Amino acid sequence: MDRDTLELIRDFTKNQYFYTLDNNLPDPGRLFRESTVITFNGETLVGKDALPDYLASILAKYNWSYSAHTVHVDAHPLADGTILALVNGHRMVNGQNQRFAQTFILVQDGDSYYVAHGIYQDISNDE
């Protein structure tokens, strides 16, 4: 993958995807489609609004504050023109640092991308 495309993927994950989830849950914008499938810690969510709605309900239920910080992003093109991206990072939940990994299948849409599939998993600090 050329450096420009890798930088676009890094920008998408850090400055669009996680920024939107951290700051603008009611408006996921162009991040998702009705066919988007996300697995979030083992729970499968389908559709454009599924992940933002799910995260908003968790944050409200547990009165959490939340922000994600990516540490490493790697990406590779797949034969069908989509991008496989792996993100490792940490999120702050009520002031506690929790590690996570997220894998994406991204589809290009103009000058940006949307998430076709994603798998998010918290990583225990005990592991």
Question: How would you describe the overall organization of this protein?
Answer:
A 6-stranded mixed β-sheet has the order 2-1-6-5-4-3, covered by helices on one side. The protein has 127 residues and is of the alpha+beta class. Helix content is 27%, strand content 49%. It is built from 2 helices and 6 strands; from the N terminus they run H-E-E-H-E-E-E-E. The longest helix has 21 residues, at 3-23. It has helices at residues 3-23, 50-62, and strands at 32-40, 43-46, 66-77, 83-93, 96-109, 112-123. The relative contact order is 0.19.
In angstroms, what separates the terminal alpha carbons?
A: 32 Å
Coarse morphology: globular
Element-by-element helix/strand order: HEEHEEEE
E-strand count: 6
Helical segment count: 2
Structural class: alpha+beta
Radius of gyration from the CA trace? 14 Å
> Strand share of the residues?
over 45%
Q: What is the residue-mean pLDDT, rounded to a whole number?
A: 82
Poorly predicted spans: none
**Helix share bin:** 25-40%
Biggest sheet layout: 6 strands, mixed
Order of strands across the biggest sheet? 2-1-6-5-4-3
Secondary-structure topology with pairs:
Blueprint: H1 3-23, E1 32-40, E2 43-46, H2 50-62, E3 66-77, E4 83-93, E5 96-109, E6 112-123
Parallel strand pairs: 1-6
Antiparallel strand pairs: 1-2, 3-4, 4-5, 5-6
Short précis:
This protein is of the alpha+beta class. It is built from 2 helices and 6 strands; from the N terminus they run αββαββββ.
Keywords:
127 residues; alpha+beta; 6-stranded mixed sheet; 2 helices; globular
